[in-house]
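WARN retry 2 of 3 for item q-0093 after timeout on previous attempt; input resubmitted unchanged.
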Amino acid sequence: MSNGLSLADQITLELRADIIGGRLLPGMQLVENELVGTYNASRNTIREALHRLGQEGLTRYVRHKGVVVRRLEHDDIRDLFQVRRTLELQAIAKARPLCEYQCDRMRDAIEAAELARDREDWRAVGTHGLRFHQHVVGLLGSPLLDEFFTNVVAQLRLVFSSAPDEARFQAPWLLRDRQIHRWLVAGDKSSASEAMACYLDDSEHQLLSTFTPSFRH
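OK item q-0093 returned
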C-alpha cells in the first residue's frame, strides 16, 4: 500500500479513531462478520486488528460476547494520569518558544471544543480537548511519544464516555485549556506548568470520584 500500512494497520487506526471520536463506546461489541463487510477484509485481517486493539488496552474478550470495547477501572485511571503528568509536564518544561503552527494547532483544538460546547455536543468537547493535550505532548518533538500518547488519549476517551454526566464533567476544563495556551504562547512555562499540574490533579480527582464501585466490572 502506498502509505506503507497493511490493511490490518489501517483498520486498527480507524477503529482507534472511532474510539477517540466517541463513536465506539465502552461495552460495545465489535462483531467480526460486520467488520469483514465494512472493511472488505478477511476474517484473519479483522482478527489481527482486534488483537492489536486488545494489546493497546482498548478492547477485551468477553465470554459469550466476543470482543468488546473496554471499560476502564480506577487503577487504569490512576495509571493514565501518571503517564499524563510525566509527558505533559515534561513537554512544557522542555518547550521552546511556540512556532506559529504549534500555536495555531492548539488554538484550533480549543476553538473546536468551544464550538462543540456551544451546540452542547459534550462528546466532541472531550475529543477536541484531548486533541489540545496531544499538541502539548507534541512539543517534545518525538513521533514515538506522539503515537504512544494517541493510545493514552483513546483510553481516556473511554473513561470520559463512561461518565454518568459527561456534560457536567467536561464543562470546567475549556477555560483552563485556554489559559494554559496563553501562558505557553507568552513563554511563561512556570505558570503553564503549575496550571497543568493543577488541571491534571483536579481532573483525576473528579474522574475517580465520579465513578462508583459499580463502574468496576
